[in-house]
Amino acid sequence: AYAREPERYWQNAPQEARDMLVPMIVPFYDGKPQLERDEAMRSVGIFAQTIMLAAKGMGYDSCPMIGFDADKVAELIKLPADHLVGMMLVVGKATKSAWPKPGQLPVQEILVRDTF
Questions:
Q1: SS3 116
Q2: Are 65 and 87 contacting, i.e. CB atoms less than 8 angstroms apart?
Q3: Helices (DSSP H) in 6-105: which residue ranges?
Q4: Whether the Cβ atoms of residue 44 and residue 86 lie closer than 8 Å to each other
Q5: Bridge partners, residue 35, by sequence
Q6: Dihedral sign, Cα of residue 75, residue 77, residue 82, residue 84
């Protein structure tokens, strides 16, 4: 995705920022498939959280899903070869309360301030 019209990612930025950043996009990702995938996963996580918060604000419930066969989903929806399924997200009205989240780690274990 980064190589296809990279200027679209910065289309609403000031011209000075576009002039500096757009030429950096392709060299930054080119030949680094793990970085490219990491960025896709980060982006899909931020997008999903935004949708979940918006859904809650509109009175709906949501749930991110894992444990599905991404290849079969890709085949079913005729996903282009240069795309991937990052997660599935369901949005609707809950029929019962959610289970308590099992194994929730304490914030002190996952949030690092300044240094380890």
A1: coil
A2: yes
A3: 15-29, 33-57, 70-76
A4: yes
A5: none
A6: negative
Cross-strand pairs, 90? 63
pLDDT tens profile 57-109: 999 999 999 899 999 999 999 999 988 898 999 999 999 998 888 888 999 99
The answer to whether the beta carbons of residues 64 and 88 sit under 8 Å apart is yes
Tell me the pLDDT tens digit for each residue of 33-62: 999 999 999 999 999 999 999 999 999 999
Give the burial string for 18-47 (b: 16+ CB within 10 Å, else e). Answer: eeeebeeeeeebeeeeeebeeeeeeebeee
First to last CA, the chain: 35
- The H or E element containing residue 62 is strand 61-65
